[in-house]
Design brief:
Layout lengths: L6 H18 L3 E4 L11 E5 L2 E8 L7 H12 L6 E7 L7 H8 L4 E5 L3 H10 L11 H56 L1
Parallel strand pairs: 3-4, 4-5
Antiparallel strand pairs: 1-2, 2-3
Length: about 190
């Protein structure tokens, strides 16, 4: 009979917890079968059109930079666009500053805790959240393009409104200039006739 407090048992319970959290977000995921040489991949599947590779850690000791580098090595084996890594720790754990810095420099890696998982996935889906992700990733890229298009349309509308306002101001200034010229010409003509 195995020890329910062993590192393996604690890790397995946390992995199942993460699996259920991911399933609740409509991710299509499954646990990596035991004994297949998972190389750090605890859960895999898809989320919003992206292939997702997940590593779960339930430990009190902070996650260090070398653990992030190792997971980046795992991600590098998935050499195609549309894949991202999710490194999930329990809320009792933390990431060192160097681990966070390392993850920020990685183009397709998200760090989160079990408590913040849903929020961070929503931010990932929405894009500009501080999470670094390749722009060429499917739906995120489409979302980015749509947002950019909306911003440009709003800018064009603003510019058009200001342009028509500016044109009105210019036309008004031209009218004033014509009146001044006419008044000056009239004065000049008056002074000549005197």
């Amino acid at each position: 009979m195995s020890n329910p407090n062993s590192t393996t048992a604690v890790g397995n319970r946390f992995t199942f917890r993460v699996l259920n959290l991911l399933l609740a977000t409509n991710a299509d995921v499954q646990i990596t079968p035991a004994g297949v040489g998972d190389r750090g991949v605890d859960i895999y599947g898809s989320y919003c059109g992206f292939y997702m590779v997940v590593q779960c850690k339930d430990q009190v000791a902070p996650i260090r930079e070398n653990q992030i580098r190792e997971f980046e090595g795992v991600l590098s084996r998935y050499n195609f666009e549309g894949v991202f890594g999710l490194f999930i720790i329990s809320s009792r754990g933390s990431f060192t500053k160097y681990a966070q810095d390392r993850a920020r420099s990685s183009p397709n890696l998200v760090l989160t805790t079990d408590e913040n998982l849903e929020e961070n996935l929503e931010q990932f889906q929405a894009g500009p959240s501080g999470l670094v992700i390749r722009e060429t990733l499917g739906e995120l890229r489409d979302l980015h393009i749509n947002l950019e298009r909306q911003i440009l349309e709003e800018f064009d509308n603003f510019r058009s409104e200001n342009r028509s306002y500016t044109i009105k101001k210019i036309n008004s200034a031209r009218e004033v200039a014509k009146r001044i010229r006419a008044a000056n010409i009239t004065r000049a003509n008056s002074s000549i006739h005197l």
